[in-house]
Amino acid sequence: QVQLVESGGRLVQAGASLRLSCAASGHTVSMYGMGWFRQAPGKEREFVAAIAWSGGRTEYADSVKGRFTISRDNAKNMVNLQMNSLEPDDTAVYYCAADRMSPIRVWHSMADLEVWGQGTLVTVSS
Q1: How far apart are CA 22 and CA 98, in angstroms?
Q2: Which residues have C-beta within 8 Å of that of residue 44, sequence separation ≥ 6?
Q3: DSSP 85
Q4: If phi over 0 gives left and psi between -120 and 50 gives alpha, with beta otherwise, what is residue 98?
Q5: I need a surface site. Which of 1, 21, 51, 88 has the fewest CB within 10 A?
Q6: Do residues 50 and 69 make contact, with C-beta atoms less than 8 angstroms apart?
Q7: What is the pLDDT of residues 66-113, one digit of tens each?
């Protein structure tokens, strides 16, 4: 059974950069698509970014394209999210997710993925 643990969330000012990490344990995730979702206060959870198991394909929400970069290190069983030019609207709890069955191109509209982490809070002050 795969477990995911996120880290790196904290309070930053608008315009700052932040790197989130997600460490997987219990099983290798080298064959899993991996990604990030977020949930802002009073809003539903939304897709942020995803990366295919090989690392050769990525998907991003329109709201973060050009600012966020997802990457993975299968040898370390980790996936990272580099967030640049952060805005107050990026404030949310960020969740790491993993799934073996669904191609990442459909993750934009998916809520029911196989494995979820507990989340890490990112707060961006104006």
Answers
A1: 10
A2: none
A3: S
A4: beta
A5: 1
A6: no
A7: 999 999 999 999 999 999 999 999 999 999 999 999 999 999 988 789
